[in-house]
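Summary of Year 1 activities. Much of the first year was spent building the evaluation harness for sequence design. The harness presents a backbone, in tokenized form, and records the residue chosen at every position. We chose the following record to illustrate the format because it has been used consistently in internal testing since the harness was completed.
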């Protein structure tokens, strides 16, 4: 169902960097006018923010462009500008559709599972339509040999996998990430949820995707890396090499603010190193706190992030600035809050 268009006052957003024209050095200058359009559908809020087609923060020299708005509109604009695709890889951690009043346990206390408006389910059909819509746009903006990774739990990941099959992606792997120290199940009526699935797929059946087999083998202690992270199958827990463990985000990853579904940088680093070469251009259409950007820049890749919520864009910008400072020794001015 398409929501009726709602008029919103133009909000003033300042960019920390000047507007930029499209050029070889600046391949993502998708718009130089401060155009603001209304969001239409698929945004789980009655008062959506305007989508900006100029980045709210950018550093073309180090390959970073951050946009605030609906990723559907932004990807449409990118696809118009780059009809043959422009991204080498996409990582997407879309809404899980699980914020429907349930409870969970956090730090020993009973808390609501609700993450925000953006995570509310609108029923299986609408949720699936949404997944198809954003995945179709991802497919358009991927280069012919590009790949996409999508993470999720049972609430959304089966729909994502089915939509990928409907759209003609080539499914490469489904990774099971075992999260250490999962919260206990308070109801005692189910098994404790402890895994997340990450589907890896290529743009089409013809894609010749990139995979750094050697590096992954080395990371797995000299054996082929399996799709179970970490691999507890053929060894006991003590034998799992440290390089295989992926812990939840440490406190140091939350110094600029918290995101309810923040991914660990180590998970994104594994994904980026496995599937991209240095300088690759990576998109995260559901950027959240910017974890993909932090990992991409730390590994010498370039990054485009899109996020709906202003406060998360601010967290992401500051985290990415820190990452740039660390990897390039930069001391840029702190990101302006929007
Ligand atoms: C599951 S979280 C991503 C968390 C992220 N991986 C991290 O490490 O912080 C999904 C994010 O997508 C944003 N979002 C939801 N719908 C969106 C849309 N249509 N366009 C852009 N961002 C959206 C939400 O505000 C939320 O921050």
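For this record, the design step produced the sequence shown next.
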């Amino acid at each position: 169902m398409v929501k009726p268009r709602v008029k919103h006052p133009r909000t003033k957003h300042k960019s920390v960097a000047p507007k930029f024209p499209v050029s070889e050095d600046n391949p993502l200058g998708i718009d130089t006018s401060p155009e603001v359009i209304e969001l239409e559908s698929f945004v789980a809020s009655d008062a959506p923010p305007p989508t900006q087609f100029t980045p709210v923060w950018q550093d073309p020299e180090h390959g970073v462009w951050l946009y605030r708005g609906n990723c559907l509109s932004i990807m449409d604009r990118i696809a118009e500008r780059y009809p043959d695709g422009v991204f080498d890889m996409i990582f997407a951690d879309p809404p899980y559709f699980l914020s429907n009043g349930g409870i969970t346990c956090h730090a020993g206390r009973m808390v609501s599972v609700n993450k925000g408006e953006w995570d509310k389910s609108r029923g299986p059909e609408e949720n699936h339509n949404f997944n198809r819509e954003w995945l179709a746009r991802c497919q358009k903006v991927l280069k012919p040999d590009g790949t996409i990774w999508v993470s999720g739990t049972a609430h959304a990941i089966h729909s994502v996998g089915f939509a990928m099959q409907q759209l003609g992606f080539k499914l490469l792997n489904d990774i099971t990430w075992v999260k250490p120290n999962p919260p206990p199940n308070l109801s005692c009526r189910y098994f404790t949820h402890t895994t997340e699935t990450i589907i890896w797929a290529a743009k089409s059946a013809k894609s010749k995707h990139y995979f750094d087999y050697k590096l992954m083998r080395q990371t797995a202690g000299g054996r082929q890396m399996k799709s179970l992270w970490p691999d507890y199958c053929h060894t006991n827990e003590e034998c799992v090499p440290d390089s295989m463990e992926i812990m939840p985000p440490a406190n140091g990853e939350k110094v600029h603010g918290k995101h309810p579904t923040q991914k660990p940088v180590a998970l994104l680093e594994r994904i980026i190193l496995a599937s991209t070469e240095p300088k690759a251009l990576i998109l995260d259409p559901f950027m959240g706190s910017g974890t993909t950007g932090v990992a991409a820049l730390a590994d010498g890749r370039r990054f485009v992030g899109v996020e709906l919520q202003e406060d998360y864009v601010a967290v992401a910008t500051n985290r990415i600035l820190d990452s740039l400072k660390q990897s390039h020794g930069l001391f840029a001015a702190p990101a302006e809050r929007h």
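The CA atoms of residues 294 and 320 lie 5 Å apart. Quantitative recovery figures across the full test set are reported in Table 2.
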